[in-house]
C-alpha cells in the first residue's frame, strides 16, 4: 500500500474511489450517509411489517384475475432469491419469476433458480439473449478498454425486462435491492456507468466493433425507457427487502434449509463473467475492488467485522489456478485466444469519457433510475 | 511430465483436457524424444485390438516404451483398448499383446452369460473394488465409470485384479501389476470418478 | 450393474442451441458451449449434439465448435449432423468425441456405416432414424423421414434398423418426429417392437416430459438409452429455458424403482 492510500477507519472504502470524502474523524461519506440518511429511515420492525403488508395489498388488488400479479427478476443470486421467497411466503403474492440468460450462467445459479421455482411453486419465464450478439458486443467493450465491462450484461437484462414488461403490461416489479448488503454503493468510477446509453454503445461499436451491424443485440436506451415508464401510468418498482430483517447469513441458511439453495462465495458470482470481472479484471487492471463496497455494507449493518473484511480483501476470492482457468474460459468463450485477451488486459486504460455519451443528461434522471432499480445488479 | 502416448489411436485430447483441469502437466508423445521426460505414461486405445497393436508396433514407440516401463519402471496406465494391449493376446485378433500383465482378452459374445446382451457394453457401470489400492484412494462407496467395449480382460493372476464389473459375466476392469495398470473403462469421460482415478495415478 | 443412460440431446442451428416441436419452429435456447458446461457440471451420463443445418445444407461439420464442446465434456459426447464420409468421422473422433452419429447419409448408403466402423470402431458409430407414425385412415405403423422430416422414405423402420445394425452401427437411436417437443411421453410401442430385434444398444428420443416418462421407458425396455431435448432445457408452462438434469440421487431412485435386478425389462 502506498503512502497516498487513505482508508476509512470504520468501513474499508478507500481513495481508489476518487470522489471519496473523509471527515475529521477519519470516517468516509458512505458511513456518514448511512448514519444520517439511511438508518433513520430504515424500519424492519412493526413499521416495516405494516408497510410490507400495504405493499402486498396494493399488488394483490391490481393483480386480481391476472395470471401473475408482479414480476421478479431472478438471477439465482441471494437478493433476488430472497425477494422471491418474501413475495410468495411473506406477502402472499403470485409473482412470475423472470430470468435473462445472457450466456454466462453458472451451474449453481441455474440450479438455484430451479430449486426456487419448484420449492415455491412459481412459474418461470426466461429471455435468452442471442449469444453471438452478446459476444460481439462484449469483445468491442473489452477493446474499448473502459472499466464498465458489465454494461453489456446490464443492457441485456434491462432490455429483456423492458420487452417483457411491454408485452405483458406489467404493473408491479419487485427487486432484491436492499440496504442490508448494498447500503454502501459501488462508486460509478469503478465501472458502474449509470444506465444503458445508446450513444455510448453506438460509439464503442463504431470504433471497436467488428465492422458489421449488431442488430441482434438488445439495446433500449435509458431515456426512451424512462419516458415509456412515465407514459405507462402506475408502473411501480418495489423494494420489500428493506421492510423486514435481512441478515445475510440467516437468509442463506433458511433458503438452503427450505429449498436446497446453494450459497455463493460472494456477491454477483451467479454470472461467470461478473465473477471474473470483479475478482480479476477490475482489480488487476484498474485497481478497483468492488468487494470493498460489499464488505463495507456488511460492516455498516453489523454483519461483518472490519478486520475480517480487511483480511478477505487482502486476497482474491478465487485461487490463482482457478482465475487462470477462468481467464482462458472467458477468452475462448469470446472466441479470443488467451494472448489476445491478455493484450486487451495490458492495453492503456480508458474511460467512458473517451467516447461519445450522454452521461450528463442521464445523470439528471439518475435518482429516478436508482429508485426504479432498473440496473441488473438490483435484480438479485 | 505425464506423457500420453500418441501412436495414432485413441482420444489423446480428452486426457490432456482432464489433466489440465487437474493442474497436472501433461503432453502427447509422438516420437521417442517426446517420451524421454515421462514420469507417468498413459496408453490410450479404441477400436480393434490388432489395429491398435499394429499401429503401436509401427509407430517406433514400442521399444522406447518397453524400455521405460520394463527397465526404468515408469508407471503406465492403459485405457480401454490400451488396457487390453497389456494382455498376452486377444480373442478379437491374432497379434500378440505387450504381455505386461499376463492375461487374455475375451469376447462377451462368446460367453453364454453375456452373449445375448446388447453389444458393445455401453454406459455407466458399478465397480467392485477388491481391496485398498492407491488408484482408488479417496473414493466414495460406489464408484462407477463409463464403459464402451465388446471385449474384456481376464487376468491370469487374480492378484492383479483390482476391480471388477459385471455385464453378464464378471470382468476385470481395473488391473495392476506393480507399476503397470490398466482400466477398461474411460476415466477421461467419467466425471469426478475418472478425475480422481487419473489424479491418483499421476500423483502416486 | 449397467445403468440406463439418461441423455440430453442438444440441437445446433446457425451456431446456437435451439429446440423444435415436430422438428419445426426452432426456438433459440442459448450458447451451446455454456449448455454443455452446465450439463458437465451436473454430471450428465452422456450428451448428444446434433447440427440440424448441416444435413440440409451439405455443409462441413463445424470442427471448431466440436473441438470446444469436446474440451468441455468430461462425459461421452456423440456428435451428428451432415456427416457423409468416414474421413469426417475420423476427424471428429480425433477432436475428442466418443461417438459420431449419422442419419440420412447412412440410410441412403448403409455401407457408409461399414466404412466408419472400420475407421473409428463400431462402438463409435451411431445410426439415428427419424420416425413418424403413418397418417391416414387405414395407416398402420411408422414411416422413415430424413432432412428434418422434410423427406419421407418408403422404408420399414424396424427392418431399416436391423440393416443399419448389420452394416456397422454400434448403437441405434429412434427419434420420434411426432413426439418431438410434446413432452407427453416416449413412443413405448415403438421401443417394445424394436428392442428384441436389436443386438446393439437402443436409445429412444422424442417425447420425454418428465423423469416418470423415462421411468416408463426403462420399465418397458430395461437398460436402454433415454434421450431428451425439451425436458432438460425447458421449465414450466411458459417453456422457460432453464437447463436441468436429474441428480445422482434422483437417478438412483428412478433405477431402483423401474429396473429389476439384472437389467432386464419388467414383464408388461
Lay out the secondary structure.
The complex is a heterotrimer of chains A (380), B (204) and C (268).
Chain A lengths: L28 H10 L7 H17 L7 E4 L4 H13 L4 E7 L5 H14 L2 E6 L2 H14 L6 H18 L3 E3 L23 H11 L13 H10 L4 E3 L9 H12 L12 H15 L3 H11 L5 H8 L6 H14 L4 H9 L12 H6 L1 H7 L8
Helix pairs in contact in A: 3-4, 3-9, 5-7, 10-13
Chain B lengths: L1 E4 L6 H10 L4 E4 L2 H4 L4 E4 L5 H10 L3 H10 L4 E4 L1 H4 L4 E2 L12 E5 L4 H4 L5 E6 L1 E2 L14 E6 L1 E5 L5 E7 L1 E9 L2 E4 L7 H13 L1
Parallel strand pairs in B: 1-2, 1-3, 3-4, 4-13, 5-6
Antiparallel strand pairs in B: 6-10, 7-9, 8-11, 11-12, 12-13
Chain C lengths: L4 E9 L2 E6 L2 E7 L1 H10 L5 E5 L2 H4 L5 H10 L4 E4 L5 H9 L4 E4 L1 H5 L2 H10 L4 E9 L8 E5 L4 E3 L3 H11 L3 E6 L11 H7 L7 E4 L5 H11 L3 E4 L1 H4 E2 L4 E2 L6 H11 L10
Parallel strand pairs in C: 1-4, 1-12, 4-5, 5-6, 6-7, 7-10, 10-11, 11-12
Antiparallel strand pairs in C: 1-2, 2-3, 7-8, 8-9, 13-14
Helix pairs in contact in C: 1-3, 4-6, 9-11
Structure, explained:
The complex is a heterotrimer of chains A (380), B (204) and C (268). Helices cover 50% and strands 6% of the residues of chain A. Chain A has 16 helices and five strands. Chain B is α/β, with parallel strands linked by helices. In chain B, strand 1, helix 1 and strand 2 (26-29) form a beta-alpha-beta unit. Helices cover 27% and strands 30% of the residues of chain B. In chain B, the strands form three sheets. Chain B has an eight-stranded mixed β-sheet. The longest helix of chain C has 11 residues, at 157-167. In chain C, helix 1 (32-41) runs parallel beside helix 3, helix 4 packs parallel to helix 6 (111-120) and helix 9 crosses helix 11. Chain C starts with a strand and ends in a 10-residue tail after the last helix. Chain C has eleven helices and 14 strands. By secondary structure, chain C is α/β, with parallel strands linked by helices. Classes of the chains: A alpha/beta (380), B alpha/beta (204), C alpha/beta (268). Chains in contact: A-C, B-C.
Helical residue percent band of chain B: 25-40%
Amino-to-carboxy terminus distance of chain B:
13 Å
- Overall SS class of chain B: alpha/beta
Shape of chain B: globular
Q: How much beta of chain A, percentage-wise?
A: 5-15%
Tell me the radius of gyration of chain B.
Answer: 16 Å
Strand content of chain B: 25-35%
N-C termini distance of chain A? 33 Å
Uncertain segments of chain A are 373-380
Please summarize the sheet with the most strands of chain A. Answer: 5 strands, parallel
- What is the C-alpha radius of gyration of chain A, as a whole number of Å? 20 Å
CATH third-tier fold name of chain B: Rossmann fold
Low-confidence stretches of chain B: none
